[in-house]
Design goal:
The complex is a heterodimer. By secondary structure, chain A is an alpha/beta fold. Chain A is built from four helices and five strands; from the N terminus they run E-E-H-E-H-E-H-E-H. Chain A has a single domain, classed as STAS domain (Transcription Regulator spoIIAA). Chain A has a five-stranded mixed β-sheet, with helices on both faces. In chain A, helix 1 packs parallel to helix 2. Chain B is of the alpha+beta class. Chain B has one domain: Heat Shock Protein 90 (2-Layer Sandwich). A five-stranded antiparallel β-sheet of chain B has the order 1-2-3-5-4, with helices on one face. In chain B, helix 2 packs antiparallel against helix 4. The two termini of chain B are 23 Å apart. Classes of the chains: A alpha/beta, B alpha+beta. At the A-B interface, helix 2 and helix 3 of A face helix 1, helix 2 and helix 4 of B.
Chain lengths: 131, 134
């Protein structure tokens, strides 16, 4: 069965979604990511969606869910690489990625994750920061 | 797979939703719709295909190429034989859902396309048409 590879880089997990996501594969990714965060004690998750030609409400909900779930178990999630046309479309669709932090590309996403991790340690707070 | 006008694709499973998305994309590339039109139409088709499969118990997507005074349009009609929609106004409002979704499907799809028509009666399935003109 096809699956989306999840890479561990230091204290972060990195996922690049390169295939056309059908619903079952999307849900499987959500489950695997949350279990891996627990297993590896990862502090952050970076999801690259630069290959996705569309984001519909199902994928939007998946990204929101992953961000919420990882936050509850102590890790931040950043979504990077959204295409401009996808951004325009999801706004008109009415989809809001409220729980999801976003960055332009992988570099900026990693930088954002490091800031999120550091500030959590400094403040010793389990409340999410308002990035 | 190369689609022509009048083609009908089945909608019974998740994989069929992907097939419909690919078919929309392919047709729009073939007829040189703009990238933003492609993105919006494929997204709308994805929402309506999922509604069809998840809430309507499956059905078909019918593709039609329209011509009107030199302009080309693509119309896709999603037909299911499910329980139908009792209150269409309510179903079109954001956040309304009878299932597990976000309730953005119908209203969102309507905002993404140029023409949107919906017909339904309780017990009589749902028929939704969306069109995009070049």
């Amino acid at each position: 069965m096809e699956r989306i590879p999840i890479l561990q880089v230091g204290e972060f997990l990195i996922v690049s979604i390169q295939v056309d996501l059908h619903d079952r594969l999307a849900l499987r990714l959500q489950d695997e990511l949350t279990s891996l965060v627990v297993k590896t004690h990862a502090k952050g998750v970076l999801i690259d969606i630069s290959s996705l030609e569309i984001v519909d409400s199902f994928i939007g909900r998946l990204l929101n869910n992953i961000a919420s779930m990882t936050r509850i178990i102590g890790a931040g999630t950043v979504v990077v690489g959204m295409r401009p046309l996808v951004a325009i479309t999801i706004v008109e669709l009415g989809l809001s990625l409220i729980n999801v932090k976003t960055a332009l590309n992988v570099d900026q996403g990693m930088a954002l994750l490091r800031i999120m991790v550091n500030s959590t340690i400094e403040e010793g707070s389990d409340e999410p920061n308002n990035w | 797979m190369s689609l022509t006008t009048g083609d009908v694709l089945p909608l019974a499973s998740e994989e069929d939703i992907l097939q419909v998305r690919r078919a929309v994309k392919e047709l729009m590339v073939l007829h040189q719709f703009s990238l933003i039109q492609q993105t919006k139409m494929v997204t709308a088709a994805s929402e309506l295909s999922r509604n069809n499969v998840v809430y309507g118990g499956g059905g078909v997507a019918i593709f039609e190429l329209l011509q009107d005074s030199g302009s080309i349009g693509l119309r896709i009609t999603f037909v299911d034989n499910g329980p139908g929609i009792a209150d269409i106004e309510q179903a079109l409002s954001d956040g309304f859902t009878t299932g597990k979704g976000l309730g953005l499907g119908l209203g969102g799809a309507k905002r993404l396309v140029q023409q949107f028509e919906i017909q339904s009666e309780p017990g009589g399935g749902v028929r939704v048409s969306i069109s995009m003109w070049k």
